[in-house]
Design a protein that fits this description.
The chain contains four helices and five strands. By secondary structure, the protein is of the alpha/beta class. The chain is globular, with a radius of gyration of 14 Å. The N and C termini lie far apart (47 Å).
Length: 134
């Protein structure tokens, strides 16, 4: 039996970023709980960057996509969340959902978002990214 948690969230001091690892399917409650934990960890450590490994994440519902875009991201941006490196989901439908959210958020210039195939590429970008001051 697989007992891997739906998500793991922690601060990586070497990267100076919050790391989120998502596994499998998450309920709406779990998605919101994990997202809020990521934001509180970011605030606690005065960080502004996130490494989001969504490779194993299965699906984000339309309602949750709207919540991320219209509620979570604007609040996060106000609290200092400025850059996210996303390791792309292998699930086609989740990849489309993530890319759709990202394009809408980028159009509002709330944060820098970049998608990667590997963790190494994502980490390299996070180490080099210049945070835009609002």
């Amino acid at each position: 039996m697989d007992t891997k948690p739906v998500y793991e969230i922690f601060f990586n001091p070497d990267l100076k970023a919050v790391v989120m690892n998502w596994h499998g399917y998450s309920t709406s409650r779990q998605l919101k709980e994990g997202s809020e934990k990521m934001l509180s960890t970011l605030i606690e450590h005065k960080a502004n960057k996130v490494l989001a490994n969504l490779k194993e994440m299965i699906l984000i519902s339309t309602e949750d996509q709207n919540w991320i875009e219209h509620s979570f991201i604007p609040r996060g941006s106000e609290k200092g969340f400025k850059a996210i490196a996303i390791i792309k989901p292998t699930s086609y439908f989740n990849r489309v959902a993530i890319e759709t959210i990202a394009s809408k958020v980028e159009n509002r210039d709330l944060m820098q978002i970049k998608h990667f195939d590997t963790e190494g590429e994502a980490i390299a970008w996070l180490n080099e990214v210049e945070i835009k001051r609002s």
